[in-house]
Amino acid sequence: MPDGYEVRGKSVRVYFRYDGELCREPIGNATPENIKRAERLAKIINLEIEAGTFDYARHFPESDRIKATSFGHYAQIWLSIREADVAASTWRAERSKFNKHILPKWADRQINDIDYLEVKLWTTSELRDYANKTIKELVSLMSAVFELHCLQSQSARNPCRSVKIKLPDDEDPDPFELGEIERLTKLDTAFTQERNVVAFSIWDGCRLSECMGLAWEDVIDIEQGIIRYERAKVVGSYRVTKTRRSTRQHRLMKPAREALQRQWKLTGHLPPTVIDVVQRDNKTKRSQPIRPVFRVIDDPEPAMRLSVKTFFQGYCKAAGVRYRPISNCRHTFISQMLSRGVVPLKWIADHVGHTTISMIEKRYGKWIEKDGPDIQASVEKMLDL
Fold first, then answer.
1. In Å, how far are 154, 178, 184, 200, 348 from 208, measured between CA atoms?
2. Which CATH number fits the domain that encloses residue 109?
3. How much is the pTM?
4. Nearest 5 degrees, angle CA 115-CA 120-CA 121?
5. Which residue among 3, 146, 270, 357 sits deepest, i.e. has the most Cβ atoms within 10 Å of its Cβ?
6. Which of 188, 196, 333 is nearest to 261 (CA)?
7. pLDDT tens-digit series, residues 282-315
8. How many CA atoms lie within 13 A of 355 on its CB side?
9. Residues of the domain holding 88
């Protein structure tokens, strides 16, 4: 067999060793012309490999090896692995980012050929009009694909590791004040279920997905207002709560308890529906017959967000309240508890299902001075000043 090429039946192919692997690529039918071409090509390839200038994709653009070492190939593998590891809503959001932003740019590129400078320039040119938070998410997704490739090949590297995206300072929480809460929860409206949702959310601090996943089977004592959060409803599908800490039982504050009691008259008599609840492994589904408490507002996910936003914008306008997203109902509960000055942070964290007290202080809570006690006067009195 001549060095660098061989005739196999009616076809001829070249062979060479590249990156420690023996590679074979077909040239065509074993005609005298193709055999001479294979001989010349084999010599050229070996010279280029020795010189470090060999470009596999240039010589064999349709090679299965090229397709298997493209960024798009590894991205699809990563997405297929990811699908089994995360919630369906998370996976769909990540897949959408790949399809819209990442794959059109990088799918056909050889993953080993993408370098730091290219990625950095991409973030500062083609992505420059996007928020830095979005850019950081895209780079993070790309980085995950490169990390997968690094696990597969010892010679691989991740060019995204050195791409740093600066984020602006977090915006301060923007909770509703007591006067606004009064107008939101006492609004004279025909949308009584919506009003109950708003009052319940503001005075219990639950996530909207938890509110939508609450069933009458989770109400342990309606008179005392004792409930248990066990599931959430996300993009029309049910799943267990966000974290184990989020699965919790507690007694409702009076306004939330009263909203629940009003809601009982509207939906407490309705028949149960059998649902599938996705478990924390994102695979197992368990069927449950439940009677949803609230049946009015869609989920706060991208596919549903417009309907929620549209509803709450109109609701706030009717109540004469400056619009903030409905998720601020959760912020409002936490901030109102903090502003009392006497509610332990541990109690607040347990009540809303947070794993750490620091998250309460950093992300959700805000001292509402006009709604809180006069701390200075209390200290002066205590110190007899």
1. 45, 20, 16, 10, 17
2. 1.10.150.130
3. 0.70
4. 100
5. 146
6. 196
7. 889 999 999 999 987 544 444 444 467 788 999 9
8. 5
9. 71-162
